Amino acid sequence: MVARTDSRSEEWVEDTRSAEGEARGERAQISIVIPIFNEEANLLPLCEEVTDVLLGLQQRFEIIFVDDGSRDESWPILVELARKESWIRAIRLRRNFGQTAAMMAGIDAAEGSIIIPMDGDRQNDPSDIPRLLDKLAEGYDVVSGWRRDRKDKRFSRVWVSRVANRIISLTSGVLLRDYGCSLKAYRADVLERVRLYGEMHRFIPIYAARQGARVAEIPVGHRARTEGHSNYGLERVVKVMLDLLVVLFLGRYETKPIYVFGGFGLASFAVAGCASVYATYLKLAGIATYIETPLPLIAVMAALCGCMSILMGFLAELLVRTYYESQNRVPYRVRTRLNFPNDFRERRSPPTADD
After folding, report:
1. How far is it, in rounded angstroms, from Cα 125 to Cα 218?
2. Nearest to residue 31, comparing CAs of 89, 73, 86, 95?
3. What is the pTM of this model?
4. Coil, strand or helix: which one is 276?
5. What are phi and psi of 186, to 5 degrees?
6. At residue 5, does pLDDT exceed 80?
7. Mean pLDDT, the chain, as a whole number?
8. Which stretches within the chain are classed as H helix?
9. Strands 114-117 and 30-36
10. What is the pLDDT at residue 236?
11. Is the CB of residue 313 less than 8 Å from the CB of residue 265?
12. pLDDT of residue 273
C-alpha cells in the first residue's frame, strides 16, 4: 500500500487500489469517472447510488472522483470515502482546470476496459449505466446518452443546447441529439490517443468516429439539480463553437494542413491575378490609371497573403511529420489483425519446399 499526506486535512490517505486485487493481477472492468467542483452535498448520495448499481453488475469496478479545485468540503469527504471503500479512487487537481481537464485526468488514471464518465451533480441517473453497457455489448465502441426529458432552464440551457447539437451534428457528420450529456460509455481503446482541451470532452464521439469507431445513442434519464448550483452559463456556447472549429479542422486536415493553407494561398493568388488583369485593362482602355484605382494595391496584398499562406502550409506539414515520427505514431488505426505474429517487426519467413 502506498500512503501520502494531504496538506489540508493533515491526515494519511491510503492508496485506493485494492491490495488483494493487485496480488491476483485483477484489473477493474468498468471505470466510472466523475469530475466534481464544489459538490459536497451531492457526493455521499451519488457515491451510494453508483455503488449500488455497479454491485448488481457482478463485475470488478472502480469509481474515480476528480476534485477540480473545489473550495468547499468536497475533498475531505472524498478522503473519507476512499478510506472506507477500496473501489473509490480520488484525484485532487491543484486548481480549477475545468471539466474537460478533470475528465481527462480521470480517464488517464482509469484501468477499466470500459470507461463511463458522468456528472457529479446527480442529474445523471446511475440506473442508466447497465443500459449503456448492454448497448455497448451489441458491438458499439461509444454509446452516448440523450437527455430526452431534460430538467434544466428551458431557454438558456435546453433550447440553446438543441441548436448547438444540431449545428455540431450537421458539420461533423456524427448525428447525435445530445453532445453535452456527460453520461457516455467508451471502450478504453477508443480513448487511448485522445487528448482533450478547452470544452472538447463533448466531442469525443467525433474523435472516435473519425478513427472508425461505431457510435450509438440511447435515451437516458435526467434529474433536476437538488443541491448546489450550476457552474455554466451562456458564455460556454461561444467556447463550444470555437472548439468545434478546431475539432473539424483536426478531423479533416490534421495530417494534410497544406490543403487548408495552400487552398487559401491559391485563392489569394487568383484574386491578385484578376485584380492585376483588370487594372491593366482599365489602364490600356484609358478608363483609369494605376494610381486612380486600388486594384494594384489589392493585387500586391493578395499576392503577399498567398505566399505567406503557402509557406505556413509548408511549416505545418513539417510540424505534422515531426509530431508523428518523433513519437513513432502512424496516421491510422487498426481494428483487427488476423494471422500475424504478436510483434509486427518479427515476421516469419514463408515456408519453403524443404519444409
Report:
1. 13
2. 89
3. 0.71
4. helix
5. -125, 140
6. no
7. 81
8. 19-23, 40-55, 74-84, 99-109, 129-136, 160-172, 204-210, 235-253, 258-284, 295-326
9. parallel
10. 66
11. yes
12. 95
**CATH code at 18-253:** 3.90.550.10
Provide the CB-side half-sphere exposure for 6 (13 A, CA): 18
Phi, psi of 66 (to 5 degrees): -115, 110
Three-class DSSP category at 188? helix
Winning range, highest mean pLDDT, from 16-20, 280-284, 325-329: 280-284
* Span 24-74, pLDDT tens digits: 346 789 999 999 998 899 999 999 999 999 999 989 999 999 999 899 899
Q: What's the average model confidence in pLDDT over 280-304?
A: 91
Closest residue by Cα to residue 34 from 117, 132, 110, 133: 117
Distance CA 67, CA 74 (A): 7
**Residue 329, pLDDT score:** 66
Beta-strand relationship, 114-117 and 12-14: unpaired
CB contact at 8 A, 216 and 187: no
Give the start-to-end residue ranges of the domains of the chain. Answer: 18-253, 258-326
Produce one character per residue of 328-341: b if its CB has 16 or more CB atoms within 10 Å, e if not: eeeeeeeeeeeeee
- Region for residue 339 given its phi and psi (left: phi exceeds 0; alpha: psi -120 to 50; beta: otherwise): left
